[in-house]
Design brief:
The chain is an alpha/beta fold. The chain has helices at 34-42, 62-78, 89-97, 110-122; strands spanning 6-13, 19-29, 50-60, 82-85, 105-107. GO terms for molecular function: anti-sigma factor antagonist activity.
Length: 123
C-alpha cells in the first residue's frame, strides 16, 4: 500500500537567536513525491540551515532516495547546511551507503540534529 507524501515546513530557534527550517515528511517517499520533496525545498529560505525530519516516513524507495539526493545536491551547491533525523536504523544504513551522509549529517532526533547544525552554522 502506497501512502501519499505529506510535508510541513516549520521554523525552530537554533538557541542563538537564529532560525532553522525543518522540512517534516510523512508517508512514503517515491517517484510520485517529486512535488512534495523538491517543491517543499523550493519554498524554504536558502540562507537558513535545514533539518529533514523523516520520523513519520513509512518507506523510501530508490526513486525517493534519488529525490532526497537531488535536494541535498542543490543545498550543497548553495552552501546550505542540512541535517537529517528520524530515520529508522535500516534507512540510516541506506543513506550512508548511497552517500547521503556526505551531504547531510544523520542524527537520531531533532535536538541532536539542531544542535549539530547550529554549531556548524556558527563555526
Amino acid at each position: 500500500m502506497t501512502t501519499e507524501t505529506r510535508t510541513n515546513i516549520d521554523q525552530i530557534s537554533d538557541g542563538n537567536n537564529g532560525r532553522i527550517t525543518v522540512l517534516r515528511f510523512a508517508g512514503d517517499i517515491s517517484s510520485t513525491s517529486r512535488s512534495a520533496v523538491l517543491g517543499s525545498y523550493a519554498g524554504v529560505d536558502k540562507s537558513l540551515p535545514v533539518l529533514l525530519d523523516f520520523s513519520k516516513v513509512d518507506y523510501i524507495n530508490s526513486s525517493g532516495i534519488a529525490l532526497v539526493i537531488q535536494m541535498l545536491m542543490e543545498a550543497n551547491k548553495l552552501g546550505q547546511k542540512v541535517a537529517a533525523f528520524g530515520l529508522s536504523p535500516h534507512f540510516q544504513k541506506v543513506f550512508t551507503m548511497v552517500g547521503i551522509a556526505k551531504y547531510a549529517g544523520i542524527y537520531p532526533d531533532e535536538a541532536a540534529a539542531a544542535s549539530s547544525i547550529s554549531s556548524s552554522a556558527s563555526a
